[in-house]
Amino acid sequence: MKVLVAEDSAVMQRLLLRSLEKWSYEVAVAADGAEAWELFQRDHYPLVLTDWMMPSLDGIELIRRIRASPPA
């Protein structure tokens, strides 16, 4: 299963990436909400893990956009 991780902390990115890959998930990592939104628009991610506060686009607005987008 594909997972999109939106996290601005490099340490948390690595931790989540390693853990999710260990559990056989296919992981895409975005450094902020704007990058995550771009990735989400290009591909289908059944699971999105997002930080609450990020530069450019926060986690709340990212989830609002995802929920408002047409289903894949």
Helix share of residues?
A: 40-55%
Strand order of the largest sheet: 2-1-3
Number of helical regions: 3
| Average pLDDT number | 96
- Which runs of at least 5 residues are low in confidence (pLDDT < 50)? none
Number of strands: 3
Subunit arrangement of the protein: single chain
Query: What is the end-to-end distance?
Result: 15 Å
> For the report, how would you describe the main beta sheet?
3 strands, parallel
* Tertiary shape: globular
The run of helices and strands is: EHEHEH
Write the layout of secondary structure elements.
Blueprint: E1 2-6, H1 10-22, E2 26-30, H2 33-42, E3 47-50, H3 59-68
Parallel strand pairs: 1-2, 1-3
Helix pairs in contact: 2-3
Task: Give a verbal description of the structure.
- By secondary structure, the chain is of the alpha/beta class.
- Helix content is 46%, strand content 19%.
- It is built from 3 helices and 3 strands, in the order βαβαβα.
- The mean pLDDT is 96.
Task: Name its key features.
72 residues; alpha/beta; three-stranded parallel β-sheet; 3 helices; 3 strands; 19% strand
